[in-house]
Write a structure and sequence with these properties.
The protein has about 140 residues and is an all-alpha fold. It is built from 6 helices and no strands.
Length: about 140
């Protein structure tokens, strides 16, 4: 599998949107769904104590996906290069976004109570770590 650099940067805005927004949405959906299963008793509270923050950390781990099978099928079906480039580019950035989310959420574990007031801090840390990683990478 390969992605031409020109095609990647031509679609960088869309790829970045899918990777960042998609991974954050996936983290929230999986984390909140896990917490709701715990809250309604589907996950036994006597066995596990699952605060929302731990559920979101779990969601960030699960949100990193590997689309090798999808890209393989795309190659077999000769899909448009745009679709292939978007999925491939998103998969490259998706792992990095999930790692940053995991690091930010893990840093909060045990240090502060996770509330809605913590969300701006999480977003600022996410941007700070992401930009720092890009600067180091360049």
């Amino acid at each position: 599998f390969s992605l031409k650099q020109k095609a990647f940067f031509k679609n960088f805005g869309s790829i970045l949107m899918f990777a960042v927004v998609g991974t954050i949405i996936s983290t929230l959906v999986v984390g909140i769904a896990t917490y709701m299963l715990y809250a309604i008793g589907f996950i036994n509270p006597a066995v596990f104590k699952l605060p929302l923050l731990e559920c979101l950390i779990y969601g960030s781990l699960i949100s990193a996906i590997d689309p090798v099978a999808t890209l393989s099928i795309f190659s077999d079906l000769n899909v448009t290069p745009l679709l292939y480039n978007l999925v491939f580019g998103e998969s490259v950035l998706n792992d990095a976004v999930a790692i940053v989310l995991f690091r930010v959420l893990s840093a909060l574990h045990g240090s502060v109570d996770f509330t809605f007031g913590t969300i701006p801090y999480v977003l600022l840390q996410f941007v700070y770590i992401s930009l720092g990683s890009i600067i180091v990478g360049v």
